[in-house]
Amino acid sequence: MFKHKENSGSLFKNTNKKTDNHPDYTGIIDIGGKVMRIAGWKKAGKEGTTFLSLQVSEEKQEEQKTNKKASPFDGMDDSIPF
Predict the structure, then answer these.
(1) What is the CA radius of gyration of the chain?
(2) 66 lies in a domain?
(3) Looking at residue 73, what is its pLDDT?
(4) What is the distance between the alpha carbons of residues 36 and 66, in angstroms, rounded to a whole number?
(5) Contact 53/25 with Cβ under 8 angstroms?
């Protein structure tokens, strides 16, 4: 489970990077109480300076399901059978 304070997060080196398009760093961030994914790419500026280009996005549907706590009522039909 996500253990950061609100409006903070962490980036880790992406050990699954397969192509240049994949981010160099990935992680999670809490923005206003909403947990988001964060990705970073190492870039070189015009005068040789280096920086991280960042992208923040919502979690994918499958990740949301994995992170969601299971409820004993999941999958139950709320309709009355009579």
Answers:
(1) 18
(2) no
(3) 47
(4) 14
(5) no
How many domains in the chain? 1
What is d(CA 47, CA 54) in angstroms, rounded to the nearest whole number? 20
Q: Is residue 64 part of a domain?
A: no
Segment 39-72, tens digit of pLDDT: 999 999 989 899 999 999 997 655 555 555 554 4
Give the 3-state secondary structure percentages of the chain, helix then strand then coil, rounded to 5: 10, 40, 55
Residue 75 covered by a domain: no
Name the region of 75 (left: φ>0; alpha: ψ -120 to 50; beta: rest): left
What is the number of other CB atoms lying within 10 angstroms of the CB of residue 27? 17
Task: Please give the model's pTM, rounded to 2 decimal places.
Answer: 0.66
Inside any domain, residue 15:
yes
